[in-house]
beta-galactosidase (Enterococcus asini ATCC 700915), 879 residues
Amino acid sequence: MKILLAGDSTMASYGEEFAPLSGWGQALAQLLPVEVQNFAKAGSSTRSFMEEGRFTRLLEVAEAGDVALIQFGHNDQNPKNGVSLNEYTMRLQEMVTLLKEKSVIPILCTPVEHRVDGTGQVAETFAPYKAVLRRLQKEHDLALFDLNRYTYFYYQSLGAEKAKELFLWLGVGEHPNYPAGSMDDTHFSAKGAQVVAEYVKKRLRPYLTEELFTKTYYGACMYPEVWPEEVFASDVETMAKLGMNFARIGEFAWKDFEPQEGVYDFSLLERSLDLYQAQGIDVCMCIPTPTPPRWFTKKYPESLVKNQDGTVMVHGSRQHVCTNNPDFRRHAYRLTQKLAAFLNRYDNVVLLQLDNEFKCHVDLCYCDTCQKRWPQYLATQYQTVEWLNQSWGTSVWSEAYDSFEDVVLPWRTPFLHNSSLMNAFRRFTADTLNEFAHDLCHFIRMETAIPVTHNSAFGFNLQNDDLFGDLDVAGFDTYAPPTDFPAYTLNLDRWRNVKDTSQEVFLLETCTANAGHLENYATPRPKGFVTSELFIGLAGNLKSFNFWLFRGHRYGVEQPHSAVLTAWGEPDRGYEDVVKAGELHQRMAPLLAASKYVKAKVAVLYSDYAKRFYTIDNGGYYDYRGLFTDLYGSLIRKGVSVEVIQESSSLAEYQVLFVPFLRWVSPQVLRKLQAFVQKGGKLILGPMTGDRTEELTWPEHNGLDNLGEWLGLSQIQQFSVKGIEFLGAYATHQEQLDRLVTTFVGDDSWETLGQTSDSKATFIGKTQRGKGSILYIGALPENLQTSPMWDAFCCQEVLPFESDREFLQIGKGLMKYRRKTKDGVQIYITNFAMEEASYQLHIPAKELLTDRDLVCGTQLLAPYECQILEWTSLGETNS
């Protein structure tokens, strides 16, 4: 692969006669192990770059798999060049489209910032252009490197005067190429170009390296700030004896690292990291921003979260401060940068975790900062208040606004707020949270190249695809119940696919036996469940399996939570499983290192946008997470391996795609679905897919909006059957339908597969398009797990595409993943049921954990038993 550069003077390469002038593209070429071709030119705008043929020359050398970095704005911003914001947008769209046609990966870059603005202040001066780039990023499923925000913060951290070192600032006679000197606040010196190039190199790492991590980790969370030094040192030794090679620390230790404002003390961290290093234990270090200390909340009380009813959170617990508050951000950024600089000294710090479980305990905030930022956000999103009024339909109930400042926050009101207002405020909350997270990444990358992650989870209201877009690797926490193992594997299948550039994923928290806190005494898991979790997790591409926590707490609120050791240092209830899991990890490690995960051919699209819609428009009974888990679990329990993907994911690798509960189908997603079907894919839509607009309004012309028009569906009717008998028929089965039902009439190309019993209206239909097929499901049976109707549907439409059907067929309670080796295929399989389960083996296999040869026929697995089946010399099957 090659790196291709399209841009202006700040990116361009220069000869010695212009030294020390340098563009960051020139410096990048010296840093990367691959070829860099720099087409950037001084003075280029998007218009001139295309009209002068420079983009054409770039396209001529571009090949599939190349990466093209695009950075324009400096000269487009200059009125003398006559490039409007609309033309800027259209030119970039054309570049992106042409690059994608050649299977080149376009990456948009926001323009690097000037040292200072016209008033001599470090400022952000490209806001309209950044808004365009953000919009193009979403519309075209692109990566975006925010060089503008990074350089803005970098100059701030140095101070405007010291930042001159990064630019072409020269005194009279200081350099022979500039005898009269130079006072240039736009163009870089070699030092400044190097700073930007180093950042770009870090961001390009996932494109240049197949895997960031060459080994798998097993460990636990530890809290050196809580325990005496001798206790902590003993625990680190015990951790090593248990075969653990990974520890996560620091997420709540802000007070220890900054005991007084502006006074930093990393001595505790230094002692801890030295102990880990001596035992050969690698560390995930957390940025401790969820727990601002008391000195902070006393001095900055306006930073505390304000609830919808006007009450204000007080100090204590965690996440009590609004992440939008400027004082909080200033202190958080400063602490993050100092921590990152300190951690760069330790080779055994292999991962940095941002914060801890964003939005775990809080959701919306109505503080003064949020009130101030809200109209600014709306102005960026909607441009004019007239467009906002039209988009939201504010003629209802005299809700129309005369200015963005007039738009209320969704405080308490006698009835419900406008659905579009509630949706926009939740979007504002998610977007500004991601802004904070990405800012933390900038301050980390100023100091270190340690990869960055976050421990997300399904229960929090986040926009995870955007969140992880700027992070290096995915991470999550889960405490799934043993009675519903798909709730655990859903995490594996979702977070493995949250980043298009990497399938590596870290499980950063799970329990040894049970979760728990003062108001929840949870029941321990059955013995053996944890080993099955670890086994199938590692098979599914986990890079870490990490317990919360190593030694139980004596204080706080989570004392009932199980641990490796009790608070008094004895083995806790799950200790036996911890030992067995450690032994299993060591046995699996060489097998995992010699194999690669193989994706399934069936995918299900998960959407945080849809989840947000269901928090608002749910009929009083729908929960997106529950809906999705139920459908996903029904497929897993039938032995269908699936990938859980998102709107931005590529569809090229899949044969069957489920798109359920996606209430708004964006134009970009619609184009991808159309292409998927044209190329031969099977698309299964619904229920409720396409029944709302982007602003959470009802469609204007078709009950399924643009999706319905493409499908040729009309006479859309949607109604609730909760609490009444309402049957649907499919094949030879007739069953009660579940809650919200959508019926429709298709054009002549549609075949009716399912009808309602009352009016014979269609609720399942099928049509052929191009080389593929489409099904729309207007309602599901009431209980997917026991439904003969759903069994019949899946047997007909899905099971023929199951990836591993030639090797085996698994029964209920079993879970499997496929991996490939240099010489063959491996299938990792475990029994999550609390009773014996079986599978049918179609081709004789070698079982690697017991070194047995298995013959065709029924194979039995005891509860939580694990097997690794291997087939070698299978030719084309190994894919």
In short: The chain has a mean pLDDT of 97. The radius of gyration is 28 Å.
